Amino acid sequence: MALRKDFLWGGATAANQCEGGYLEGNKGLSTVDVIPAGRDRVSVMKGKMKMLECNDQYFYPSHEAIDFYHRYKEDISLFAEMGFKCYRLSIAWTRIFPNGDDAVPNEEGLKFYENVFDECLKYGIEPLVTITHFDVPLHLVKTIGSWRSRKMIDYYERLCETIFTRYKDKVKYWLTFNEINMLLHLPFGSSGLVFEKGENEEAVKYQAAHYQLVASAKATEIARKINPEFKIGCMLAGASTYPYTCAPEDVWKAMERDREHYFFVDVQSRGEYPNYAKKMFERMNIKLKMEDGDEELLKKNTVDFVSFSYYGSRLTSADPEVNTQTAANLFPTLRNPYLKTSEWGWQIDPLGLRITLNALYDRYQKPLFIVENGLGAVDTPDENGHIEDDYRIEYLREHIVAFKAAVEEDGVDLLGYTTWGCIDLVSSSSGQMSKRYGFIYVDKDDDGNGTMKRSKKKSFYWYKKVISSNGEDLE
Ligand code: BG6
């Protein structure tokens, strides 16, 4: 079995990391607009440091980002030149509902995305839309505590109903929440949660998770009414966890770690809370507030496909003495001595992608979609301004070989592959521009200086060949 003929090759971005124009077109402020670059970024994202206003002493990379808001036509034409079949992007909630609870949507915001979708469709590029990618209207954080409140479900529903109706003939593929499991690790960055001293943070997070899971199921229900052709997916920060040794205690720990993440997709894809989660809540003395009808809604509205991001595998040990850590996607992991790392310490493990694909397919038996994968690296233009990013080509090549093996040799059903940050954009974890993922270079530095000029890297031409040969020509 080869890759599907209609395999969705492409790239992915998120509104807050590329659009800029943070107050243009009547857009309201969202959580990401008050998350600064620099050393306080992670504390703010974790909900440990409360920062709900902009402060002149900080630099906020989302405010201008790479100015996709004004340059989307040029950017999409470059995607088209590479032969993209698909472009994954997110909708900024506050462009559509500036405060989140507005009675009427903002026409300028709706029109902006309509133009973006039309531009994609002009080139035969299928839009894949993340309904929310790490942004919550700031007004809802201030007034109701964001996803602490059940009212969020109604506001999210209003957003979904509005965009599903408006774009029903332009968009087919939707993802409800980006990396939904990141709520546990970056509660403010992903979901707008800030904690008060002394409260049971785990209870707050799992209650918020319940509301997001209900909201995701509601979105699926509404989507099917508005257009039965829609395909709705969930989105997981994926990566299998390896045990540090073959000691059964390590294997057990790795299984527990994986369940922490699978928990969300277990509900979204199988339609009910798994028994291990119910037992965990008992042990943690967490009593979820559920309403009549929640369980039935979850059961009836499971996703059509499972999407995930993959940057590298995770490693864990039951032995507290084993504690050499390295950075990874959003939270650190143990250092695996068998793997190389990126300049940011993220471990590189192409076979881990094949393992993760198999684990997810065995568990859910639904089509999968790799919606993020890539190498964050420093790119230095040579004297002619060219970027020979062979390191990025090598990373992507090895991961493509791995997912092709999962499809061709293991029989995994894979819908597509959208590499992360197909055009350089602001890094989510660090707020830097210098952590680049793109095929397209953007002339801008970490302090916001630069011309914003776009130029093609060596990987641009390489990926074009990969796409036109449907993954056969990887040289
Ligand atoms: C994922 C996010 O966690 O990883 C993206 O969905 C993010 O928003 C990507 O940009 C890469 O992480 P970073 O920190 O290198 O930008």
TrEMBL record:
The active site is at 372 (nucleophile). GO terms for molecular function: beta-glucosidase activity. The lineage of its organism: Bacteria, Bacillati, Bacillota, Bacilli, Bacillales. Belongs to the glycosyl hydrolase 1 family. It comes from the Bacteria. Signal peptide: none annotated. This is Amygdalase. The keyword Hydrolase applies. InterPro entries: GH, GH_1_N_CS, Glyco_hydro_1, Glyco_hydro_1_AS. One of its GO terms (biological process) is carbohydrate catabolic process.
